[in-house]
Amino acid sequence: MKLKTILFIATAVLLSHTGFAQDEPIESLAGRGKTKIRVGGFGAPTVKFTTFDDQLGILMGGYAGVMLNSRMMLGAGAYALVNNIEAPRSNAADPTLYWNMWYTGFVPEYTIKSNKLFHMAVGGLIGGGGVMKNERFKGAEESENFDYSGFFVGEPHVNFEMNITSYLRLAVGGSYRFVSGSNTTGITDEKLSGPAAHFTIKAGRF
């Protein structure tokens, strides 16, 4: 009987602490605001600076999802290479082709002390994508892709974030992209993989 009473009291204290923690004000440059929302969500457009075929690659994209208890986000993300990186030619007479890469997948993310002005988040993307060669400066209907192959991708990341308002955050961070399974001529999984530094804007209800 005593054991049941102790467990009941411990459970009640834990639940009450969780409830109070959820009601803590969110610190931001615009001031301190309160939220009792247990289910929110946000979108996070992102630019990444990474290595691609031993050169500088710029990826544009982002992720979005549902945020639970101002901590755990469950969503999806997608990124694509946007700058011109020339693919190797088999012979000098071949036309100039450029690399094109994209990937997408499931994104979980956990935010630590989300209510604090400065805080951090850890997460990752797991999914798939593709790499190919194509000619640039043509319309979408005229573009032709060459030597396409798909691949598996896993990309853990860490963010260092600042609350601008209770609905807007800025983040900088880093990630590492692990690619496996591609077989496009002229590039390897190792050259598709690599570290990245990124800048993110998060907007939503945290």
Question: How would you characterize the overall build of this protein?
Answer:
This protein is mostly beta strands and 206 residues long. The chain is built from 2 helices and 10 strands. The chain has helices at residues 2-22, 189-192; strands at residues 26-28, 31-33, 39-52, 55-68, 72-81, 98-112, 118-134, 145-165, 168-180, 194-205. Strands 3-4-5-6-7-8-9-10 form an 8-stranded antiparallel beta barrel. Strands 1-2 form a two-stranded antiparallel sheet. It is elongated.
Highlighted features:
single chain, 206 residues, mainly beta, 10 strands, disordered N terminus
Query: How are helices and strands ordered from N to C?
Result: HEEEEEEEEEHE
Class from helix and strand fractions: mainly beta
Main β-sheet, spatial strand arrangement: 3-4-5-6-7-8-9-10
Instruction: State the distance separating the first and last CA atoms.
Output: 42 Å
Cα gyration radius (Å): 22 Å
Number of helices: 2
Oligomer: single chain
Please specify the SSE layout and strand pairing:
Elements: H1 2-22, E1 26-28, E2 31-33, E3 39-52, E4 55-68, E5 72-81, E6 98-112, E7 118-134, E8 145-165, E9 168-180, H2 189-192, E10 194-205
Antiparallel strand pairs: 1-2, 3-4, 3-10, 4-5, 5-6, 6-7, 7-8, 8-9, 9-10
